[in-house]
């Protein structure tokens, strides 16, 4: 799970570097923060689902090989 957190932070930092906040008077600062939070949640769900897919795949493979064959 620590690995997921590190990858999440790296992906969120990359997103924030690629989408910098443009300080215009007409921009709402809270809208930009909400966008970062929503994208951070989406990135977290994406990383967690990838991690769990491979974890479950290898665990079921382990069970199949060592207990069913």
Q: Per DSSP, what share of the residues sits in E-state strands of 2 or more residues?
A: under 5%
Number of strands: 0
Individual helix count:
2
| Major β-sheet annotation | none
**Which shape, going by the Cα principal axes?**
rod-shaped
**What is the arithmetic mean of pLDDT?**
85
Instruction: Report the C-alpha radius of gyration, rounded.
Output: 19 Å
**What is the end-to-end distance?**
31 Å
Order of helices and strands: HH
| Structural class label | mainly alpha
Task: Give the low-pLDDT segments.
Answer: none
The percent range for helix content is over 70%
Domain module tally: 1
Describe this structure in words.
- This protein is mainly alpha-helical.
- The chain has one domain (2-19, 34-68).
- Helix content is 83%, strand content 0%.
- It has helices at residues 2-18, 29-68.
- Helix 1 packs antiparallel against helix 2.
- The longest helix has 40 residues, at 29-68.
Highlighted features:
mainly alpha, 2 helices, 69 residues
What's this entry about, in short?
The chain contains two helices and no strands. Helix 1 (2-18) packs antiparallel against helix 2 (29-68).
Please outline the helices and strands.
Blueprint: H1 2-18, H2 29-68
């Amino acid at each position: 799970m620590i690995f997921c957190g590190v990858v999440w932070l790296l992906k969120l930092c990359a997103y924030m570097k690629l989408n910098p906040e443009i300080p215009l008077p007409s921009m709402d600062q809270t809208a930009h923060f909400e966008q970062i939070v929503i994208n951070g949640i989406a990135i977290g769900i994406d990383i967690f689902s990838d991690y769990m897919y491979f974890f479950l795949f290898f665990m079921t493979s382990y069970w199949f090989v060592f207990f069913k064959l």
